[in-house]
Amino acid sequence: MFFNSKKYRIEAEKNRKQSLTRGPSMCNMISLGLLASFAPTRQLLKLFPLKLDDQSQTQRPLPADQIPVIYFHGFRGGDYTTNVMVHQALVDQQKSDYLKVTIDLLGHCQLTGCWTNDHHPIVQVVFRQRIAGIYATDYYLSRLLPVLKRQYGFDHYDGVAHSIACPALIRTEMRVASKRQFPHLHRCAMIAGPFNGVTYLGDIPNVNALTDKGRPSAMNLHYLYLLLRRKRFNPAIAVLNIYGNVLDNTNTDSFISVVSAKSIRYILAPYSHSYHEVEIRGAAADHSWMHDNPFVIDIIDQFLGLK
């Protein structure tokens, strides 16, 4: 029997495409997440060209002024993080189709579902290596956003982010402010963002405080990065910041302190088109529950003009 090289190539390619639907190992997530977190090692990941596996449908014709709503999950999150928000947005818009994007740190990007031809297509993003901090998530965005722009031709998008994706979204927007190949934020809705540290990882409950002007007394390096680049934030962007306080005397949402979550106001409020803050209190304010909280979702959908 002769070796059928064509059949082998087809089967290998099919298995590679399907592999994006299976969760990676813990070793894979940690090692690639660390590589993406540091500038020198990040160059190793850039050696892998981006491979687009488009299994999606596109409703045509596409209007010229589309502003998609893109949902991003945080550290150790996944599609389950944003599922409730995505499906409520579909209900509010009275449609059933949305695009799902799965991307890994080696440049494999899979599109499934449907890009709709209405004014606000819904897009759910899943980071395959989900153990990714702010810098790794920023790297994800730097690879993904230009691909989506080339694929669908939009210039601006509305971002909905949870947890670590919140500061990463702001960091990316500031970093690529002058780059035309990137789509840019139009509206930004953030839930439980750790802008100045995570509880017990650089932010001890009830130790740091906001000054009268809203600046945190102690600032970590990433907060300083955003602060020094605040003038790069486009003044046309509208911002919604939702944070939680479970009222257990820690002044946190169980993971993120109120001070850390509110600290972004000092950076963005003077430079954004509009800035709104909403505090959620009690059991419903838990960090891992807020993205499914109906009240939070209703506020976001009204802010985005979806209802």
Notes on the structure:
With 307 residues, the chain is an alpha/beta fold. It has one domain: Rossmann fold (3-Layer(aba) Sandwich). 34% of the residues lie in helices and 21% in strands. It has helices at 5-18, 26-35, 39-45, 79-93, 134-152, 165-175, 221-228, 258-262, 264-268, 294-303, and strands spanning 51-54, 57-58, 69-72, 99-103, 108-115, 122-127, 156-162, 184-191, 198-199, 202-203, 238-245, 274-281. Strands 1, 2, 3, 4, 5, 6, 7, 8, 11 and 12 form a ten-stranded mixed β-sheet that branches.
Quickly count the domains: 1
Helix content: 25-40%
- The residue ranges in which pLDDT falls below 50 over 5 or more consecutive positions are 1-19
Strand content: 15-25%
Number of separate strands: 12
CATH top level? Alpha Beta
Number of helical stretches of at least 4 residues: 10
> What is the gyration radius calculated from CA atoms?
20 Å
CATH fold-level topology: Rossmann fold
CATH architecture label: 3-Layer(aba) Sandwich
Distance between the termini: 63 Å
Shape: globular
Residue-averaged pLDDT:
92
Helix/strand structural class:
alpha/beta
